[in-house]
Design brief:
The structure is a single chain. This protein is α/β, with parallel strands linked by helices. It folds into two domains: 179 residues, Leucine Aminopeptidase, subunit E, domain 1 (3-Layer(aba) Sandwich), CATH 3.40.220.10; 218 residues, Aminopeptidase. 37% of the residues lie in helices and 21% in strands. The protein is built from 16 helices and 19 strands. The strands form four sheets. The chain has an eight-stranded mixed sheet with strand order 7-8-10-9-13-17-14-15, with helices on both faces. Strands 1-6-5-2-4-3 form a six-stranded mixed sheet, with helices on both faces. Strand 3 and strand 4 form a beta hairpin. The two termini are 33 Å apart. The chain binds ligand BES, manganese (II) ion and zinc ion. Zinc ion (ZN) binds next to strand 9. Manganese (II) ion (MN) binds next to loops.
Length: 502
């Protein structure tokens, strides 16, 4: 998949397909679509009159130009209602359009800069959305399929515009969109990758790769170094597996003269969550190959940050371990002393994510000295019960920080909904034997899990994203492809680039 820009008038472009658009309810198209319609002797207008084209969001109509203009075909994409139109609509419809073209075996296409006319989206943002829509919408994970592997013909998409002043803006938008989409694709790849390949060690290799490619610092703490640091909570989670845990730290220095201009993103990196001795039921257990979705998002976001180069220092931390039952596994009832010195009663070995994160966030604040921490994790089934698969739950200790993350998510169409951290819930984590218990009983499971992590945060501004409901998609729609979603990479990149700009 490649996206480029070309300065020309759309009525002159020689292309197998030109993508134009239509808002819902428009009976007499103007702008680019209107210009095409004139050349086609009003055939678009007449298709609208016949209700064959309605402009409904995602509607796709392919018509042949039969020599009436240089472009061989016109693909008219419906944008839906004009009032609800924004960059997310562009990303959505372009993704649908690109998959449609791919299905027809078309490998070269051109498109107008959707949204920059009456849609009033700045050219750079419009180009970015087109790039994200095409790259994310055509994402596939078929490296293990003999047949599909080679048939993945790439699409060359050219954005055409006749305004020379817009060309550099479009180019910038394409580059931004590319960096972000490649970060999302990396996160998707890591989640889709099975646990026999993506071990904690392999996750560390992936991080080292990113660091080498983009000139970032990388530190990987192996089992010995974790023991040396007394990170027994993370170690306990990995103790049943033959794959040893790792703490992975990536360091991007975008503002080296201002060390306090910093943020850390910390991800749960459980490469497989069998539940451990508190074994999960067999049905659907495969999904737990993606229990490193938080860590994958950290690596994906770090890759995007490293290529976008915002003026801020960003630390990415992944707590990687495999949760397996065995003779060396942690038992229910075990009491573990975390790096912070807090003792944890392991009520359920399947509540492993919060334990891995406990040491990771503590290390991030106390050893790395970061004062702004976001952790993300496929943490609780309770989160799926609360918000389903539509939105990610967010909880945090600093309201301004939480609000800024929610609004970053809004900008990129990754929905975040805040849950309360009312002190009453905290009681549920009380242990008879230790300082804290790793389960919080029946109700409010997503909240008690967040409170558990909070117990290992001291003064830092902290926010927690529970992506249990959003890390995998059951069906392909718009830029979302069945399987790993790459959530919340785009939110993180949006937030971090916003922080850097202000
Ligand atoms: N990784 C799971 C949560 C999960 C479940 C994520 C389904 C995505 C899809 C987590 O480690 C877990 O097992 N949580 C338990 C905690 C419980 C034992 C307190 C849960 O939510 O059931
Ligand atoms: Mn679990
Ligand atoms: Zn888990």
């Amino acid at each position: 998949m490649e996206v480029s820009v070309f300065e020309t008038d759309i009525t002159h472009i020689d292309t197998p397909v030109l993508i134009v658009n239509l808002f819902k309810g428009v009976t007499n198209p103007g702008g680019a679509t209107g210009a095409v319609d004139e050349l086609l002797e009003k055939s678009i207008t007449s298709l609208i009159a016949d209700k064959e084209i309605t402009g409904t969001k995602g509607e796709l109509t392919l018509i042949h130009t039969l020599g009436k203009m240089k472009a061989k075909r016109i693909l008219i994409v419906g944008l839906g209602e004009q009032e609800s139109f924004n960059q997310n609509t562009v990303r959505f419809v372009i993704a649908e359009a690109c998959r449609f073209l791919k299905g027809k075996g078309i490998t070269t296409a051109s498109t107008i800069l959707h949204g920059s006319g009456i849609g009033q989206i700045p050219p750079e943002a419009a180009a970015r959305s087109i790039t994200e829509g095409s790259l994310l919408g055509l994402y596939t994970f078929n490296k293990y399929k003999k047949e599909d592997k080679n048939s993945a013909e790439s699409l060359h998409l050219t954005i055409v515009d006749n305004d020379p002043a817009k060309i550099p803006l479009i180019t910038a938008g394409i580059n931004t969109g590319k960096s972000i989409s490649e970060g999302v694709a990396l996160a998707r790849d890591l989640v889709n990758e099975p646990a026999n390949i993506l071990t904690p060690e392999e996750m560390a290799n992936q991080a080292t790769n990113i660091a080498n490619r983009l000139n970032m610092g990388v530190t990987v703490l192996d089992k010995k170094q974790l023991q040396h640091n007394k990170m027994n909570a993370l170690l306990a989670v990995g103790s049943g597996s033959t794959q040893e845990p790792r703490l992975i730290i990536l360091k991007y220095e975008g503002d080296p003269t201002n060390p306090n201009n910093h943020i850390a993103i910390v991800g749960k990196g459980i490469t497989f969550d069998s539940g451990g001795i508190s074994l999960k039921p067999a049905a659907g257990m495969w999904e737990m190959k993606g229990d490193m979705g938080g860590g994958a998002a950290v690596l994906g976001a770090m890759q995007a940050i490293g290529s976008l180069k915002p003026k801020i220092n960003v630390i990415g931390v992944v707590a990687a371990a495999e949760n397996m039952p065995s003779g060396s596994a942690v038992h229910p009832g075990d009491i573990i002393t975390a790096m912070s010195g807090t003792t944890i009663e392991v009520d359920n070995t399947d509540a492993e994510g919060r334990m891995a994160l406990a040491d990771a966030v503590y290390y991030t604040e106390k050893v790395l000295g970061i004062t702004k921490i976001i952790d993300m994790a496929t943490l609780t089934g309770a989160m799926i019960t609360a918000l389903g698969t539509v939105g990610t739950g967010i909880l945090g200790s600093n309201q301004d920080f939480v609000t800024s993350i929610i609004s970053a998510g809004d900008n990129v169409d990754e929905k975040l909904w805040q849950l309360p951290l009312w002190e009453e819930y905290k009681e549920q984590n009380k242990s008879t034997w230790a300082d804290i218990k790793n389960t919080g009983g029946r109700g409010g499971g997503a909240i008690t899990a967040a409170f558990f992590i909070k117990a290992f945060i001291d003064k830092a501004s902290w926010a927690h994203l529970d992506i249990a409901g959003t890390f995998m998609a059951k069906e392909t729609k718009g830029h979302v492809i069945k399987g790993a979603t790459g959530t919340p990479v785009r939110t993180l990149v949006e937030l971090i680039t916003n922080l850097a700009a202000n």
